[in-house]
Amino acid sequence: MGDMQIVLAGGKIEAQYVEMKVPLYSYGCEKKIKKALSHLRGIHSVQVDYQQQKVTVWGICNRDDVLAAVRKKRRAARFWGAEQPDGVGEDSMPADARKHYLQAFTAYRLRKSWKKLFPLIRL
């Protein structure tokens, strides 16, 4: 047992930088991102630039796993410098669908506020 040697399957493993563009709305979002990434193995440091909406991760990690961990908190996260895929964004939704969505969301928020004000009344 003492004469066993650990041999790496791949060649030389080095730490890498993973840069992502992440929509950050407040400094609480920054804390969420840092906490989500702190649970991944091999991450040495996480730097969040609130002004540029940029998250830089340094460590021995798979960049797709890092992006998946961030997307659990912020769905619109993507790699820095990557083009936005087709079908994602404001222009992909037709005007009447956007209007319907806003009406439904407004009705949901009103119902939710009424439930907070009058918890005993069933709507």
Structure characterization notes:
36% of the residues lie in helices and 17% in strands. The chain has 123 residues and is of the alpha+beta class. It has a domain at 14-79: 2-Layer Sandwich (Alpha-Beta Plaits). It has a four-stranded antiparallel beta sheet with strand order 2-3-1-4, with helices on one face. The longest helix is centred in the last third of the chain and has 23 residues, at 95-117. Mean pLDDT is 76; it is low at 86-91.
List the helices and strands and how they pair.
Elements: E1 16-21, H1 27-38, E2 43-49, E3 54-59, H2 63-71, E4 78-79, H3 95-117
Antiparallel strand pairs: 1-3, 1-4, 2-3
Highest-level CATH class of one domain: Alpha Beta
- CATH fold naming of one domain: Alpha-Beta Plaits
SSE sequence, one letter per element: EHEEHEH
Mean pLDDT reading: 76
Oligomer class: single chain
- The total count of strands amounts to 4
Helix and strand content put the structural class at: alpha+beta
In the predicted model, the low-confidence regions spanning at least 5 consecutive residues are: 86-91
Helicity range of the residues? 25-40%
Head-to-tail CA distance between termini = 69 Å
Keywords: Metal-binding
GO molecular function, one term: metal ion binding
Pfam family, one: HMA
Protein name: HMA domain-containing protein
Question: What attributes characterize this protein structure?
Answer:
Alpha-Beta Plaits, alpha+beta, four-stranded antiparallel β-sheet, single chain
